[in-house]
Specification:
Blueprint lengths: L12 E9 L15 E8 L6 E3 L5 H4 L12 H19 L6 E5 L8 H4 L4 E5 L3 H9 L4 E2 L5 H11 L2 E7 L8 H11 E12 L1 H7 L11 E2 L2 H10 L2 E9 L5 E8 L8 H12 L4 H27 L4 E4 L3 H10 L9 E3 L16 E3 H6 L4 E3 L6 H7 L1 H5 L3 E4 L5 E2 L8
Parallel strand pairs: 4-5, 4-7, 5-6, 7-8, 12-13, 12-15, 13-14, 15-16
Antiparallel strand pairs: 1-2, 2-3, 3-9, 8-11, 10-11, 16-17
Helix pairs in contact: 5-6
Bound molecules: thymidine-5'-phosphate and zinc ion.
Thymidine-5'-phosphate binds next to α11 and α13.
Length: 413
């Protein structure tokens, strides 16, 4: 039986999605023969309560110099980070002498740019060279490497200790979370804080958002599992703030044990988690049944659209969609192409399902009857942008939180 990544207790997976390609492994036809597949299974640790993948892909296979995700591809995410940077700067850096801000998984610098612009000392730590280079070109100090206790020691020796440590959508990617929290505890000044956000397990369970489960997301966090883990590293959660980005995220503010008062939001959210049963294995058995029902409903709709000759195009070649297409069995016969604004993905095939990814301009010049909303986490941004498509009778089909069309109007058949 696989063992917990954090406490080594044996774990029985509660969903086996089957063999999966690399979620962000967009490829050209010549690479199909050698496309790597690995099992995708998710489990719940009865001992430490952490929901996690029970099988991992080597980090170097996922985060490399051709990493296809650029934060700046979403204007709303950039706005979200600008707001977050301003808020954290006001809350934690005011009055500090020459403060130092560190961010891991800093991607193309979309967050740190906001500190760099104010002349604040900062450092981005990013393992994917191509996105790091974009950050450097934007004037954001960035080093290309993975973060752990050793890196933390090097940075504190070279640049000093950090007042603010940021991580958005990265903590859940790191299997050696014990090493990361040990590194953060070392790097922070005594009253320094860690602010991180990731997709929230409460949202995943409530919305049956199983597509958040893919190779890059080793962990699915909630307070129930994070609190004991952080305490083991001399840290504690002092505030939580739910976020609407990425389909439902949680922002955790963490300080050294006893260094800051604990905000009411922490016990309040913990109570919600107890009601949701996030620390209870039966919850995940129910989740699995909901996932299977969601898959069957989506495929019934896609099969019937195909039978009627209705053209369906995917909207957003998200990493999440790799789980959906491969687990559900979506083929190019169901979804002809996927429209995406990221140049690196365009002209490639989607991982596993091999659906061609086309530029957004193709969607605009040849709009389909139905757009399958793979980027459902950006729904508000996309609906605002696609008023013409909708006005012309185009429909968005989504599968989170329920399979259905964005408007309660039936598709024109
Ligand atoms: P994400 O869900 O991991 O943030 O990825 C979003 C993907 O969707 C990314 O490849 C860019 C693409 N996208 C579009 O093609 N059009 C859009 O309007 C938005 C917001 C994203
Ligand atoms: Zn465990």
């Amino acid at each position: 039986m696989p063992a917990c990544l954090l406490c080594e207790h044996p774990i029985q997976p509660f969903i086996d999605f089957g063999p999966m390609p690399i979620a962000n492994g967009f490829l050209v036809p010549e690479q199909i023969e050698d496309e790597p597949f690995a099992p995708l299974r998710v489990g719940f640790c009865d001992a430490c309560k952490m929901v996690q993948l029970t099988e991992l892909v080597e980090p170097e296979q996922m985060f490399h110099d051709n990493y296809a995700f650029f934060t700046s591809s979403s204007a709303w995410m950039c706005k979200h980070f600008a707001g977050m940077a301003a808020e954290q700067q006001g809350r934690w850096l005011a009055g500090r002498q020459n403060p130092f801000v560190v961010e891991i998984g800093s991607n193309d610098g979309s967050m740190l740019l906001n500190f760099a612009e104010h002349g604040i000392k900062h450092l981005g730590i990013e393992p994917s060279g191509n996105v790091a280079q974009v950050a450097q070109e934007r004037g954001v100090d960035t080093t290309v490497r993975f973060f752990g206790l050793d890196t933390a020691r090097e940075i504190s020796a070279e640049k000093g200790h950090a007042d603010l440590f940021l991580a958005t959508n990265v903590m859940c990617h790191i299997p050696d979370l014990n090493g990361v929290f040990a590194g953060i505890e070392h790097l922070l000044v005594p009253d320094g804080v860690l602010v991180f956000e990731d997709p929230y397990l409460g949202d995943i369970v409530q919305k049956t958002a199983y597509d958040q489960i893919y190779d890059e997301h080793a962990f699915y966090f909630c307070i129930t599992s994070l609190e004991p883990l952080l305490k083991r590293h001399g840290l504690e959660i002092i505030r939580v703030e739910p976020q609407s980005v990425h389909g439902g995220s949680m922002r955790y503010t963490v300080g050294k044990l006893g260094a800051h008062p604990v905000h009411d939001s922490v016990p309040q959210q913990l109570e919600i988690e107890t009601e949701l049963g996030l620390g209870d294995s039966a919850t995940y058995e129910r989740f699995r049944k909901n996932v299977e029902a969601s898959r069957d409903e989506l495929m019934a709709e896609l099969d019937s659209l195909r039978a009627e000759g209705i053209r369906v195009v995917g909207y957003g070649a998200t990493s999440k969609s790799t789980t959906v297409t491969n687990y559900c069995g979506i083929t190019p016969d169901h979804v002809a192409v996927i429209s995406d604004t990221t140049p690196l993905k365009q002209g490639k095939l989607s991982p596993g399902a091999h659906i061609p990814v086309v530029p957004y301009e193709t969607f605009q010049s040849n709009p389909p009857a139905v757009a399958l909303l793979f980027a459902w986490n950006h729904e508000a941004e996309i609906l605002a942008k696609e008023q013409t498509f909708i006005a012309n009778g185009g429909r968005f089909l989504r599968y989170v939180p329920k399979v259905g069309y964005t408007k309660a109007v039936e598709v024109q058949r």
